[in-house]
């Protein structure tokens, strides 16, 4: 399946009830030949409005950390394990994660990144594939709220290989 076709399939997804309360599915963005993929938990309100990942406060913080580490967001594919906003920004259920996981697996298979950064506990449920380097860290939203997590997140992001 071509990546543009997958993107459209994600936008049409009705596998769980999240599409009822969300305005947009957020398939992800970035080059389909990216060496680095960032995977978050699920879109928030700003992402739901725009249809783009990490555009709210945690996205601005993420952009700052990427720039600090000489990582160009335009060369990174950024997505979430769950593709729709959850009501009241609650954690996705295992059923919701299970409904979206096949899309993430297809994205990984299509993009073939050399490295995947799994941000947050939910995204760390992503099955690992041989030949891909993984960095597991906190979600940027948690890192923004808690100084100890912030330090660890920023140290973890220093491990990400330059494109």
Which CATH class applies here? Answer: Alpha Beta
Low-pLDDT residue spans: none
Q: Cα distance, first to last residue? A: 25 Å
By DSSP, the count of extended strands is 4
Shape annotation: globular
What is the radius of gyration?
15 Å
* Helix and strand run: HHEHHEHEEHH
Number of helices: 7
Tell me the CATH architecture: 3-Layer(aba) Sandwich
Question: How are strands sequenced across the largest beta sheet?
Answer: 2-1-3-4
CATH homolog superfamily = Uracil-DNA glycosylase-like domain
Beta-strand percent range: 5-15%
Assign the structural class, choosing from mainly alpha, mainly beta, alpha/beta, alpha+beta, or little secondary structure. alpha/beta
Notable features of this structure?
163 residues, alpha/beta, Uracil-DNA Glycosylase, subunit E, four-stranded parallel sheet
Condensed summary:
This protein has 163 residues and is α/β, with parallel strands linked by helices. 41% of the residues lie in helices and 12% in strands.
What does this structure look like?
- The chain has 163 residues and is of the alpha/beta class.
- It has a single domain (3-79, 107-158), classed as Uracil-DNA glycosylase-like domain (Uracil-DNA Glycosylase, subunit E, 3-Layer(aba) Sandwich).
- Helices cover 41% and strands 12% of the residues.
- It is built from 7 helices and 4 strands; from the N terminus they run ααβααβαββαα.
- It has a 4-stranded parallel beta sheet, sandwiched between helices.
- The radius of gyration is 15 Å and the shape is globular.
